[in-house]
Amino acid sequence: MLNKPLMPVAEALAQICEMLPLLPAEQCDVTEGLGRHLAQDVVAEITHPAAHISAMDGYAVAASSGLNSGTIYNVIGEAAAGNPFSGRIGQGEAIRIFTGAYLCAGADTILIQEEIETLSAGHITITKTAQAGQFVRPEGLDFTAGNCLLPAGKCLTARDITLAALAGCKTIQVRRRPQIGILSSGDELVSPGERPQIGQLINSNSLFLHQLVTLSGGTAVDFGIIRDKKGALIKAVEAAGPLDLLVTTGGASVGDHDHIVSDIMAADGGQIAFWKIAMRPGKPLIFGKIGNTALLGLPGNPVSAGVCGLVFLYPALQSMLGDQLTPRHANAVLATPLPANDRRQDYLRAYFVTQDDGSIVVTPAPQQDSSMLRTFAKADCLIVRPPYAPEASDGTIVPILPFPPGI
Amino acid sequence: MLNKPLMPVAEALAQICEMLPLLPAEQCDVTEGLGRHLAQDVVAEITHPAAHISAMDGYAVAASSGLNSGTIYNVIGEAAAGNPFSGRIGQGEAIRIFTGAYLCAGADTILIQEEIETLSAGHITITKTAQAGQFVRPEGLDFTAGNCLLPAGKCLTARDITLAALAGCKTIQVRRRPQIGILSSGDELVSPGERPQIGQLINSNSLFLHQLVTLSGGTAVDFGIIRDKKGALIKAVEAAGPLDLLVTTGGASVGDHDHIVSDIMAADGGQIAFWKIAMRPGKPLIFGKIGNTALLGLPGNPVSAGVCGLVFLYPALQSMLGDQLTPRHANAVLATPLPANDRRQDYLRAYFVTQDDGSIVVTPAPQQDSSMLRTFAKADCLIVRPPYAPEASDGTIVPILPFPPGI
Predict the structure, then answer these.
(1) What pTM was computed for the model?
(2) At B363, which CATH number?
(3) CA torsion B112→B115→B119→B123, rounded to 10°?
(4) Which of B207, B249, B351, B396 should we substitute to test contact with A (largest number of A Cβ atoms within 10 Å)?
(5) Which range of residues forms the domain containing residue A105?
(6) Is A83 close to B161, i.e. CB distance below 8 A?
(7) ipTM
């Protein structure tokens, strides 16, 4: 097993995404849609503006009445937002109108109140020549009923659901939230809030993965800690309800105390799709099935678990949610040279630095040990170094993996 | 009033932030800290790693025993993560050790199992000369008890709370969530989910502001829609509980149907700090007090309300939460020339465009009417055009306001 070639990251990720299902659609109230992923396009149910409306407070007239300074109008009614004037104006007639109100029949131009003089009750004149059609927002300026406003696959922002609500959508079709089990393996682990005794370590991995799943639009189901004991994983899976994916951390290596792989092999229907990935941190990464449950086994080191969560779990969730739109990679300019890389794809914790000219460059943290969670928390991004990447001088453009919002 | 000079955006924002209180600190479980704002530095309660630990599966030895290929060791015990070896090794002795386990007394170097040969039960030899101290993670490599890990004012990410949990923090001190009332004013408004009749409009503003407040770490309290009627705002405020800020949309202008300003002036202790801002969209913007409640009155047009929410409400929330760290502005390169600007600061909805060389430029949406919510939803950022900004050619670096995550 040790001499087998390591699997490239992209190939491993493609296999994971292919084996996980696209989740079914469900209905969601538009006001509850934040962060959900559209299963269908959002199509406008109504037109906005619903009619020609006034963009200002003033008077609505027909341009054919004349718009020159000194023209006199007879005011025959009033229209406010929510209270349209149901009549029609003819030549020489006007209605008082307020911002957002519908233009009445016959009207096509707004005279703003700052450029009007009242002659007598019911009679006004313009003090400045107006333009035909001015200050009118035409019907459908924003969108028309039937327009596609938001594409399927989009992860909905606050602005998106606001737009859908304005367009008359009461409910939208979104992907069901993936149900993701989270389990940590290790005799040394205690839960956050417990004080570790000699030899013990606080299990921070489950907390990180829980937040990652939630922020990605999934539902995290926490199964706590299992001990380094043969059969512990099988028992935990039997006790769990149906899951779309079980994510474990720790116990994924080949040591005598690592039982994730052997438990998978011992379980009915257990299978391992792959096991070792050409990446750093995070070589021992398992993907497979235990019983009917898909399993992603991440390494136990906090930084390795975090990086593998970003590199595999996050895009796997996006894939289950049908999200083809959220970009994951970006580019940045190196501030410091990097040596040539070996056969493993490196993910270097790195910081953004703003230069004197305002441009932003990226520099790796000086130490990259995978036990150093502090540099992971402080990092602004991960620099991606492909296998066998040649030496890179400062100024080179390199691919980076930004941290998703909130993560 | 109309001829008074308009207030600059920065001055208005500074006044708002100054008049709103810094919220008190409260205790929060570290596992619940996502998106909260630190009121105190997070200080490590324990050291990580807590002792020198092994970075690999293998054997722990003393370098002074010799590390040349062929050196023979007597294996006297075992240490695994969570199960330390309590004895001490002497010259020529080793313990079996697994990743994450503490080194025992006397050990300072790890021989990895791939470079070991077992001679007989209890005796091993090295097949490759080792380096003194190799594969050891020293105590405190990540952090030491007492280290400041996260600064006061920081908005906590998933990685931050994971780090705090690993560092033994059970609770953290965060700012209380601001309680923000949201109220829309307008005879024409109906709520999302209702079908608008002739002259009516769906009130999308409250939904947007609700999400903005929530995503910024506040608690939104929705007071629905009030009608364009004298006294309606006063009544609504009397019925509301204590709030840190009440945000209204609509009714902020000078029309006969706009009652926000007159209601504030009519209320006991009502005061208006300012009213008209040199910006576009969003000139009529109120900040003041009604009774004991601070009030921010935004315009009613969906895009104006949205932009003013980003320009004033979002930083006001950050200020109340003591957040000096989250950057709000950035720079981008213009893809298309812009004309000289007038006296109002413009916020242009704009798109990012990736060029052939991979660089990203920014281009404004061709139409900027403030009723067009669709371009607001589609936009990647707002280009900020200061008052009297001169013509800008393509290639010019311009300030932009990115949309905060999820918004």
Answers:
(1) 0.93
(2) 2.40.340.10
(3) -30
(4) B207
(5) 53-137
(6) no
(7) 0.93
